[in-house]
Specification:
The radius of gyration is 24 Å and the shape is globular. Mean pLDDT is 85; it is low at 1-54. It is built from 21 helices and 21 strands. It starts with 7 loop residues before the first helix and ends in a 5-residue tail after the last helix. It is of the alpha+beta class. α1 (8-24) packs across α21, α6 (112-130) crosses α12 (280-290) and α9 (207-216) packs across α10. Strands 8-5-16-17-18-15-19 form a seven-stranded mixed beta sheet.
Length: 627
Amino acid sequence: MVSTPFSNGRTYSIAAATLAAVFLSSSTNAFITPTHHQSRTNPSSSTLSMVTGQQASSFGPATLIRSLKKSLPQIPFLASGPTNPSNKIDIPDHVATILAQPAAPQRVAENDARTATITARATAASADAKELKGMLVGDEDASAWWRSPTPGARDITKEEPLRVLVAGGGLAGLVTAAACHAKGMKVALFEQASSYAPYGGPIQIQSNALRAIQRISPKCFEELVAAGTVTADRVSGLKIGYQKGNRLAGLYDAGDWLVRFDTLGPALEAGLQPTIVVDRPVIQQILVKHGFPTGTVRIQSRVQSYEDIDGGGVIATLEDGTKCYADVLVGADGVWSQIRKNLHGLGEGAGGFAASGAAGGAIDDKEARKLARDTIKIAAQADRRYSGFTCYAALAPHRASNIETVSYQILLGEKKYFVSTDGGGERQQWFALIREPAGGVDEEATEENPTPKLDRLRREFASILTEGGDADGNQWDPFALELIDASAESDIKRRDLYDGAPLLATFDPQRLLSPWAKGSVALCGDAAHPMMPNLGQGGCQATEDAYRLGEELAGVTHTGQIEGALAKYSRVRVIRTSIIQGFAQLGSDLLVDFDLMMTIPFLGPFFLTMTQLSMPWILRFLYTPEF
């Protein structure tokens, strides 16, 4: 059992997950691939030419249990019968009680006026980004403070503040820049994208991240809450994707609830703002306008390398050769961080290109196919873990059939699962995660086959309203196809999901004392702790990082204290992020074998009960006002 500062309730959640892992663990690094493909650890042309539809199977105890079950006599009587009507109710009594509290936000039904407001706000933010409002351009660029060498070792005063460079202009970089500016530091942010493009789906800002932003910039907090759609006013949970179970373990129809919970109760207990969802361009422009001065962000600028300055400070070199001088460099440049590559002396290809947080994944299908292949090589150098999942995602312009009662749900199945969440403005953000080897690509769209991604997804999630079901004969709940069919082929993006072991996984004494920092350089966000998306905490933890980094640097009174402040920041943050990262990894690895639990007597019901009971405690750990 993992040793953590949890209360007994939280310990139960780890015990349940650990027990499930014993029975259902699937190797996160080994997959049984089709015999005509080589292992993903050897990215030869054979593997890299793989196209869709070639799923990998779990490897480990789950495989043995599935094989054993298939070899045993099948008793039709046990596999059929009445299901529990309560599993079809969206909002159970324990959730309804929380949502009815006086302090709870009151749900206002979807309406045209609110949709128009959200759409107009996103359109305006995208227009501002296109016009480069607030960006560093022209004469101001030529005379920017970071072009001059730093004064060197000195006392930090109001007149001579710390000078901070931030590499990466996604959420982590923007909030880091705002946190440092709020403490009186000079800040410059370098973003590789050519603009803050209006791409990528809305971002869920959970209660803990909202508290961090509130402390950093009350104005940014107010603007985000005003722009956001509350998602904590409805139920969240796990559903079974297709008919499953037996009389001994419980019978479930397609779309029946397995676990239901609210995110509101733990937030209210901690005195936090309920979770909201906000369009990516809106978040970006709020931070650019209200988080720091105009001219802080320089686009088309990728930090390629850096070197320490004798006597203190750092020189960062951009891809075009431009030199930038500061006291501190923060790497907020994502999972394939170039700063991390240099900081930890990783392989030459470790700092590969990926769509930046500013661009929001703004790459076309041709670029995506190349990136899928290149990423295998990059990951090997960068010491990143392939999760075992490829992910299709889109923002569907569609009022979901359950929008008034459900804000977030996961449809579970063997080898895959389907996630959906309210995107605000009568839109649904959805993700289809399918277990298969890395490097897979979709066929190119042609006149004869204009929708290869949609065609695959319709096969993978064939519903009870169609004949045959998926490749395993499972007929899915129609809700998955409701959202898939509401999406355009061009709006569906695909990428393989990578995360990484916590940086505590080392015997290097320096990294044990200062996991994400060395000298005047530190990491934050995905550069430090990339996570699977199951908990929706990747951006939220990056926001917490930014707050803590700003707090530690604010205590520096002399440049000689910078190294100690950055080391303390990373020591404080690494324990919490490692726990959350571990939960996200374990959750993802278990979800695709969750359906197997539905057929195991005693263990299945026990696991579901433990999962249901543990969720409030997990959320209480996430939704803390202190980080």
